[in-house]
Amino acid sequence: MNNIPAVVYREEVMESDLEGVHSVVRSSGFFSPEETAVAMELVAERLKSGKASGYFFLFAEHEREVVGYTCYGPVPCTESSYDLYWIAVHDDFRFLGLGRELLERTEKEIRALGGSRIYIETSSRGQYEPTRAFYRKCGYRDEAIFKDFYAPGDSKIVYVKTIA
Hints:
alpha+beta
């Protein structure tokens, strides 16, 4: 049973999502200013180029405010692989089941687009252990580790899940 307050989901990207994504990403305390800027750049690219950008979004709104989102897209030069670039939930809405709901809905969207495998990358830093546990709990498995990828002692871990 989830405890998610009344949430509306949408895929359409709007100008106001720049601020919504900024608010969600900043609230977590996980992301650096550079990472936050990248999250917003992906929204801006989608607004500028539409689906041709390769970035797709799913937003969760509560009382017309973005409280969580995913950003995903096809991996270039693959038949049916997708990257999940971002999944983030506003700190006020964490631990209510919203992250799992967003991920499940995103998996369904990717499947509908012809996707069969989803890749997620994250950091090996200790602060990301809850994130890694979440991915494993949702059926993702460790696929690869790139030692010292982000910085000495900060490896990149790639997770994968077959969905079709």
